[in-house]
Specification:
The complex is a heterotrimer of chains A (272), B (159) and C (271). Chain A has 272 residues and is mainly α. Helices cover 85% and strands 0% of the residues of chain A. A six-stranded mixed β-sheet of chain C has the order 6-7-8-3-9-10, with helices on both faces. In chain C, a hairpin with a 2-residue loop joins strand 4 and strand 5. Chain C is α/β, with parallel strands linked by helices and 271 residues long. The chains are: A mainly alpha (272), B alpha/beta (159), C alpha/beta (271).
């Protein structure tokens, strides 16, 4: 391979890279058309709400345990770590503020989103992918039922509805966990814990923004999950790689969107 | 998994979700105080508002009686015009003074109202005449350094 | 209208990508009320033809007319309207795994009609009775054997009393008894519903027993067609090889390869 030299090696590499980038952009376009189509055909999912309710059960209710337990542990860790740092500056009474703001603004939406993506998102992708692989989607089309309206849209709306609720429950459990560790275990003053928290956590600035974040994450994660499932190769390897892609892409999307949203929402500002 | 069971669990899930949101809003946030009362608007001009932000509290005697709703710059007098919404439960005399204070040493800034003695009360759209701007830390430091330098000079002159 | 063919295909050509045509200039007319078999070895294009009839693919050239409606350029609501008059049985049944047998058969009824639950219940049980599985209505697809799943899928395919029923390799991986059951059901249901059935398969013996008309395809072309008796005794080389299951003939045993001697290392060293 001494002949051919460096130019011989680089050109095909660039070609492959360019090809990969174009392929991804094409796929993003296709995913966007899919998203638009799904929104337009969401009538069934909303009119026959029973379908969506069923999916809320499988996506939301079955994620409850992991969300509540994780929230509790995250809050407890925040309590421990927060106390350890704050008491060095004599500000241990600000523990309530630290725990509440960390959870409501960031950790609640983000961590709940990541957990939702790996538990419910991957399940949705696998389910839709398998339906495609076993020709159930094709059968539905042959029976003149639009599979996007019947199978995809209910799962999408279930995810969008479940995410903010799960994020709120995560934050609430976390604050409770911080309370358990900070007040009950370590001995921070209970009154100070709650009153300082209430004085500093603004419903519009912090809580509402946190809810908006979790809705945005819900849309992103569920869109990625249903799309990857619908677009999966109808084989065992195809479904498994689609499931992996869902978790990876959703997680990256959550973190990227979190940055964008935080920059938009939480950078100080005088007059607006 | 039959329909009735699913419906029950989804209902529980949604109820728990809303309970979580409510807990956050009421026990964690400050929804319980304020948002639904009737307010009237009052304005004040300041030479410098420092770090005062919209929704900063307006306090009198340390108790929150309103919120800052708008901050504008007056291009003619080159001063800041701050508008606040005061709770209608609290009436203040026309000669009330507004000062921009800082909570704690380096904390958030808020507007403090000191009631005057006038018999007539403020109404919607009135402007407060007496105002005191925020203390800007740099000015304070330079004042201090200047006065220290002046002291040293006097001491040297006396020698 | 009653004499017109259920499916009319004229000079149809199709390829999944432009380089590899799968169907070459096919012309075929399938009379109403009959069971038609399409046979050929794997990859000859018979499943593709079925997909075009079902409207899942568009022909590259030529026309396909199904139940009087032109399939070319058909999409959206018009396509769904046509599909409501058809039923399709997929290779392994394609039952919805998250629903019971009852819900699977009730699916087309619930989606396309406003019938009350009691009426749907009766219709579902009638269809299940026709395939012999009325007692299995509460089971889930995971609890069914292959043959039973296939029969439930058949009940679902005929739920709306279709005029055209398509079968994609219905006998795949079935034991002899289920095989015979499915074959018998295809014939009986076709006659009972007055429908037209198109079976794509490579199970020659069973198909020859139940079809009214047989079509043989190879490499995307029709090589022979006619009544089963004519096919059985045909002297056309391909048909003969297929019907008698001979390992070599017009369809060669060996996949194209360079000369054997040249390919072997020993041969090359001496060559």
């Amino acid at each position: 391979m001494a002949e051919g030299g460096r130019t011989g090696g680089v050109a095909p590499l660039l070609e492959r890279l360019g090809g990969a980038v174009t392929a991804r952009i094409w796929r993003l376009g296709f995913a966007s058309r899919f998203f638009g189509y799904m929104l337009l055909h969401s009538g069934t999912a909303l009119r026959r709400f029973q379908l969506t309710i069923r999916e809320i059960y499988f996506a939301g209710v079955q994620s409850l345990i992991i969300i509540l337990v994780s929230g509790l542990f995250v809050g407890m860790v925040l309590g421990l770590q927060g106390y350890d740092t704050l008491q060095r500056y004599g500000s241990s009474e600000a523990l309530g503020i630290l725990v509440a703001l960390s959870l409501v603004r960031e950790l609640g939406p983000v961590v709940a989103g990541l957990l939702f993506a790996s538990r419910a998102g991957s399940a949705i992708t696998a389910e839709i992918g398998l339906m495609k692989a076993t020709e159930q989607i094709a059968a539905m089309e042959m029976m003149a039922v639009d599979p996007i309206a019947r199978v995809v849209a209910p799962r999408f709306w279930a995810g969008v509805i479940s995410m903010p609720l799960l994020a709120a429950m995560f934050s609430a459990m976390g604050i409770f966990g911080g309370y358990l560790v900070g007040v009950k275990l370590i001995g921070v003053d209970e009154g100070a814990f709650w009153s300082q928290m209430q004085a500093s956590v603004d419903v519009r600035e912090d809580i509402l923004n946190g809810v908006i974040k979790s809705i945005v994450f819900g849309v992103a994660v569920t869109w990625i999950a249903v799309f990857e499932g619908y677009d999966a190769q109808p084989t065992a390897e195809g479904v498994s790689s689609a499931t992996t892609r869902t978790v990876v892409t959703s997680s990256l999307a959550i973190l990227a969107l979190d940055f964008v949203l935080t920059a938009l929402m939480f950078t100080g500002g005088n007059a607006r | 998994m039959n329909r009735a069971t699913i419906d029950v669990w989804v209902g529980v899930f949604v109820a728990a979700g809303f309970a979580g949101l409510l807990f956050l809003a009421l026990k964690v946030g400050n929804l319980a105080s304020f948002s639904t009362s009737q307010t009237y608007q009052v304005q004040a001009k300041f030479a410098n508002i420092g770090g005062l932000k919209i929704r900063a509290p307006v306090k009198s005697a340390g108790v929150v009686v309103g919120r800052v709703s708008e901050v504008r710059f007056d291009n003619e007098s080159y001063e800041a015009i701050v508008t606040f919404n005061l709770d209608t439960r609290f009436q203040f005399p026309r000669d009330t003074a507004a000062k921009i204070l800082t909570s704690g040493l380096l904390g958030e800034q808020y507007v403090g109202l000191e009631a005057g003695g006038d018999g007539v009360m403020l109404k919607q759209g009135d402007r407060l005449r007496l105002t005191q701007s925020a203390v800007v830390l740099e000015n304070l430091i330079s004042q201090f350094l200047f006065s220290k330098a002046a002291e040293d000079k006097d001491a040297k002159d006396k020698k | 209208m009653t004499d017109s063919a259920a499916v009319e295909i004229e000079r149809l050509s199709f390829g999944y990508d432009s380089g590899r045509p799968v169907l070459h200039d096919i012309s075929l007319a399938m009379p109403r009320g009959k069971v038609i078999g399409i046979m050929g070895q794997s990859g000859c294009g018979k499943t593709t033809l079925l997909r075009i009839i079902g409207g899942a693919r568009q022909p590259d050239s030529g026309t396909a007319r199904v139940l009087g409606t032109l399939v070319n350029g058909l999409d959206g609501d018009a396509l769904y309207a046509l599909r409501r008059r058809m039923g399709m049985l997929f290779q392994f049944g394609a039952l919805f795994t998250d629903m019971s047998v009852y819900d699977n058969v009730a699916f087309p009824l619930r989606e396309h009609t406003d019938l009350p639950d009691e009426l749907i219940r009766d219709l579902v049980l009638m269809k299940l009775e026709a395939v012999g599985l009325r007692g299995a209505s509460r089971l889930t697809p995971a609890e069914l054997s292959g043959g039973m799943a296939r029969r439930v899928a058949l009940a679902r395919a005929i739920a709306l009393d279709p005029q055209l029923i398509l079968y994609d390799e219905p006998f795949t991986a079935l034991d002899p008894i289920s095989f015979a059951i499915i074959a018998r059901l295809i014939r009986r249901l076709n006659d009972a519903l007055g429908a037209t059935s198109v079976i794509v398969s490579h199970d020659v013996k069973e198909c020859l027993d139940i079809v009214d008309y047989m079509v043989f395809m190879t490499a995307g072309r029709i090589v022979a067609e006619g009544a089963p008796e004519a096919m059985r005794g045909s002297s056309e080389p391909f048909v003969s090889q297929f019907v008698h299951g001979q390992s070599d003939g017009p369809i060669p045993f060996h996949y194209p390869a360079p000369a054997y001697g040249d390919d072997l290392a020993v041969g090359a060293a001496h060559g």
